[in-house]
Structure formats: structure tokens, C-alpha cells
Amino acid sequence: MSAVPAEAEAAGLPGWVMTFADLMTLLMCFYVLMLSFSEMDVAKFKELAGSVQNAFGVQNEIEVKTMPRGTSIIAREFSPGRPEPTAVNTVRQFTINSNMNTLDVGSAERIKELEELERQERMARELAEALRQKLEDEIANGNLLVREDDADVVIQILEQDSFASGEADVQSDFVPALGSIGNVVADLPNAIIVSGHTDNVPISRGRFRSNWDLSAARAASVAHALLENGVDPQRIMITGHADTQPRTDNDNPENRARNRRIDITLLPTQERHESWVEVAAGPSDAAEAIGEP
User: What is the pLDDT of residue 71?
Assistant: First the structure.
């Protein structure tokens, strides 16, 4: 009888490869986790980004015989740049100057925007805390509250004891509270938006045609009270929103009472107030542009 042939060796990679792959995967996850816990230093990030850009980027002119052609789906979606004409019959690709240590301009601008936003939000928290201390009696009585809205600070006047139902005149019991608010904000440089808000119950009688009229009239009454307490009129803008910006659903009497309010919004600076003046001047500028006499 002929000898039985030896069993063919099993095809595929050796068994230790799987163990090695698992180890590499775990090491990668570990370093990613360590990186996620780290904090970014902007100065070091700029220096590192410039170094990496110079280390791995193509820094010199590279002569090629033909235009590069993509062979993958991503490469087919993005065509190569148009070559610049040269005196000789060659095609060259040009890259950045290797002597410049720079960070991408978009990233640098984005970092500056984030730093400015963080600064404004920090100032808003400090201002809100100072207002809570100065208006603690009115807040304790349930007449108003102070909240932060990103970089803005909002003094929210609740309807309780401030306005009668369907009316825009400030009730006499609430006048001292408005005086306290006026005295506090008169010394601040911030531009101010006084906005009126109502619930979704339509007006059926009275001198107001709709909740739009009522919300704007109530905002105007509060603005007049601020002016009487020394607030510069150039700092104030009045808006009426009716029931378009509720704080909660208008599904029960308690929530509707929360939505009936006046918001006194303190903007971070007077820059946006200057834009109001530009908007107000817009129609006359447009008339001049079209030659209207």
C-alpha cells in the first residue's frame, strides 16, 4: 500500500496575528481615551499644527509626467487642480512655502470666535449674579426673575401684580419694582430690548385688536417707566411678540401665566444697538440709491 499523504497545512494567517491585532486595537483605544481627557492649549496647538504641516506636507515643487488620476470613489469626486502654464513642456504641482509655520486661517478665526463667546458668556453670568443681588427683594416677592440667555441677560417681569388682564397700564403696586429695575440698568452700558409676550388666548374685547397690540403696548409701558428712571432712550428698543415665543406650552392656566411676561434683555455691548440705527437709516439710503426726490 502507498503511504498516506501528510495532512495539508491549514491555509490562512498564523494564530498569533489575531492576538497582535487585538493588542494594537486596545492600545489605540487607550491613546484615544487619553487624548479625549486632555485639554487644548491654543498656543501649543498652533505650534504643533505648523510643525505637523511642515513635516508631512509636500513642501517643494514636484515634477510629474502626467496629471494625477484618482482610482477610488473619493478621488473620482474631486478633480486635480488646473496646472499653471510653464515655459518648458512639463507639468508641475505647487505647494506652500516650507519656511512658513502657520495654522489654517479658518481654524484660527474659529478659535478667536469661541474665546470671544466664552468671554461674553462669563460676563453675562457675572452681570446676572449682580442683578440678582440688587433685585433680591423683587425676586423674593415673585414679581420678576433674572436669567441668562447665552451672552444676554434677561430680567423677566411676570404678569403677577404687574398688569391687569387685557390691559397695558402698569398697576400702581408694581411701579416701585419698575423703579428699582430702572435705577439698576440706568448705570449699565448695555443696549436694552424690552419685549412683550402673551398667551395664546385671543382678545375678544377692549381697545386692543389682538395680542400683538397688547404685547407691544405693555412693552412700551415698561420702556416709559425705565425712561422715567434715567435710562438713556438711545439704548432702548421695543418689540411685541404676542404668543409666538412661549416659554412653555399653553395647555393649562399655570403655563399660560408663565408665558404672559415682559422681558428686559441686556445685550452684551452697544454694538448691536448701533445696527438698529443703521437699519433705521436704511430706507432713506435706498431712496437716494434709486434717485427718489
Answer: 52
What CA–CA distance (Å, rounded) separates 80 from 30? 37
| Domain assignment of residue 33, yes or no | no
Total domains present in the chain? 1
Q: Rounded to whole angstroms, how far apart are CA atoms 215 and 198? A: 6
Nine-digit cell string for 208: 386692543
pLDDT computed for residue 188 by the predictor? 87
Task: Outline where the chain has alpha helix (H).
Answer: 16-37, 42-56, 73-77, 105-134, 136-140, 175-186, 211-228, 253-259, 271-280, 282-289
* CATH number of residue 154's parent domain: 3.30.1330.60
**Domain assignment of residue 274, yes or no:** yes
Read off the amino acid at residue 263: D
| CA 179/CA 195 separation, integer angstroms | 18
In a domain, 187, yes or no: yes
DSSP character for 203? P
Q: Could you tell me which of 251, 130, 265, 247 has the C-alpha nearest to residue 193?
A: 265
pLDDT less than 50: residues of the chain? 1, 58-59, 70, 73, 94, 98, 102-105, 277-293
Residue partners of 168: CB distance under 8 A and separation at least 6: 208, 214, 217, 218, 220, 221
d(CA 265, CA 282): 24
| Residues 155, 146 contacting (CB under 8 angstroms) | yes
Structural domain that includes position 181: 131-280
- Residue 110: inside a domain: no
What pLDDT score does 206 carry?
Answer: 76
